[in-house]
Amino acid sequence: MSLSPAAQKSLAQWYAMIAKDDLSNLASIVAEKAIFRSPMAYPPYPTRDVVCLVLQTAASVFEDFVYHREFVAGPNDVVLEFSARVGSKQLKGVDIIRFDEAGRIAEFEVMVRPANALIALGQAMGARIGPVVNEVKKMKA
């Protein structure tokens, strides 16, 4: 099974952005009505702007971030295994990405372990963007 050509193109751009540590052009590969599913909170975070904010912030929080494996689950679905560090906490995780038919990221879900690293990640993210994300979620409710 392989990704659709449009999804492959966006995934290649995502990898390039991560490699360069520059997500400034992230909005170009994220769908307007995209959602982000957090490992810490429910419900999902809606809209391209919020998805980009969360992903850009996470990229700045993670240290020693590395992708290890890629699992294609369908023509528009991929799972990326990664490791990183938040402060002194080592973590492993997966990014579960669903692309729309145009190849844009429609859904981005993250799962992280162990629990102590997830807590450290949640605290770091909350300190940086918690109030902004919570306000957006209230407006969408």
Could you outline the blueprint of secondary structure elements for this entry?
Blueprint: H1 5-20, E1 30-37, E2 45-46, H2 48-61, E3 63-74, E4 77-86, E5 89-99, E6 105-113, H3 115-140
Parallel strand pairs: 1-6
Antiparallel strand pairs: 1-2, 3-4, 4-5, 5-6
Helix pairs in contact: 2-3
Description:
With 141 residues, the chain is an alpha+beta fold. It has a single domain (5-129), classed as Nuclear Transport Factor 2, Chain: A (Roll), CATH 3.10.450. Helices cover 40% and strands 37% of the residues. The protein has 3 helices and 6 strands. The protein has helices at 5-20, 48-61, 115-140, and strands spanning 30-37, 45-46, 63-74, 77-86, 89-99, 105-113. The chain has a 6-stranded mixed beta sheet, with helices on one face. Helix 2 (48-61) runs antiparallel to helix 3. The protein is globular and about 40 Å long.
Count of spatially separate domains: 1
General shape: globular
Instruction: Tell me the name of the CATH class.
Output: Alpha Beta
Radius of gyration: 14 Å
Name the CATH architecture.
Roll
Integer average pLDDT: 91
What order do the SSEs take from the amino end to the carboxyl end, as H and E?
HEEHEEEEH
Please state how the strands of the largest beta sheet are arranged side by side.
2-1-6-5-4-3
Uncertain regions: pLDDT < 50 for 5+ in a row?
none
**Biggest pleated sheet:** 6 strands, mixed
Number of helices: 3
Instruction: Tell me the structural class.
Output: alpha+beta
Total strands: the figure is: 6
Report how far apart the termini are.
38 Å
- Share of helix, binned: 25-40%
- Beta-strand portion reads 35-45%
CATH topology type:
Nuclear Transport Factor 2, Chain: A
